[in-house]
Write a structure and sequence with these properties.
With 256 residues, this protein is an all-alpha fold. Helices cover 85% and strands 0% of the residues. Helix 1 packs across helix 6, helix 2 runs parallel beside helix 6 and helix 4 runs parallel beside helix 8. The chain is elongated and about 65 Å long. 40% of the residues are buried.
Length: 256
């Protein structure tokens, strides 16, 4: 019975946590559509979550595009298929590497920041003060961050796709001997709208996951500075795992 207890208690605790997170996500999503709205808060979060994340996403994308072009050229040279470098680079970035790597980078920046910010408000009783003043914390704190993340992440990924493809272009033309006009023509001819839409759909889903997990762990944090640090760590870890899981689910369900 002791063995069953050791297995059962963590399992029940995990299921309880999943249920609580699901209810939190549902309530946060509903708060995005209920009045009153706070346009000032939404605009402020768009700047913090979207605009300030652009340098991180851009630097990540350009190096990923460059490294991807080098690796594809090396592998293609073994089969005399170097000419397919532009095709595979644009496909890999728009469908997979652009949204996933941008999501993972933003999970570290955005999710941890949200968890630390809201967690600090929780342990210093600022959230309780909002409730005392008849202000719904979900509408004032959670909804603007969720709206900003879901709205800006696709734009960030679109920028990452463009920068990543240009990173591959610079390496292909500058180091691998490709003709610039031919490289761009092959890229544009091979790219389809569905590839871009898949990446943008993933980006919106990743934005939802990152915002909800950051707010969830911050909202439930306790125990002072130690609890806030634990909330930020948990938000990053869970967001990363859920991003990878959501990436597989969306890819498998997306029509070929």
């Amino acid at each position: 019975m002791n063995l069953f207890a050791r297995i059962g208690y963590p399992t029940i605790g995990m299921l309880r946590e999943v249920g609580a997170a699901s209810l939190f996500a549902a309530r946060a999503a509903r708060a995005c559509f209920d009045a009153p709205m706070y346009p000032g808060q939404i605009a402020r979060q768009v700047m913090r979550i979207g605009w300030l994340s652009l340098p991180v996403v851009g630097l990540t994308a350009v190096f990923i595009g460059a490294a991807l072009a080098l690796n594809i050229y090396t592998g293609g040279a073994r089969f005399n298929a170097e000419q397919f470098v532009p095709n595979i680079v644009v496909l890999g970035i728009t469908r997979e590497l652009g949204p996933v790597l941008a999501g993972l980078m933003l999970a570290g920046r955005v999710s941890a920041g949200l968890a630390a910010e809201i967690g600090t408000m929780r342990v210093t009783e600022q959230i309780d003060a909002l409730t005392t003043l008849s202000t719904d914390p979900f509408k004032f704190l959670i909804a603007p961050r969720l709206i900003a993340a879901v709205a800006t992440f696709p734009l960030l990924v679109l920028v990452a796709d463009i920068i990543g493809v240009m990173g591959g272009y610079l390496v292909g033309v500058g180091s691998l001997g490709f003709n610039g006009a031919v490289y761009l023509r092959n890229t544009l001819n091979f790219l389809e709208a569905g590839d871009v839409m898949l990446g943008l759909t993933k980006a919106a889903a990743f934005g939802f996951v990152i915002a909800v997990m950051g707010c969830y762990f911050g909202f439930r944090s306790k125990g002072g500075a130690l609890g806030v640090g634990r909330a930020a760590t948990n938000a990053v870890v869970v967001s990363t795992v859920l991003i990878l899981a959501a990436n597989y689910v969306i890819t498998s369900m997306w029509p070929s």
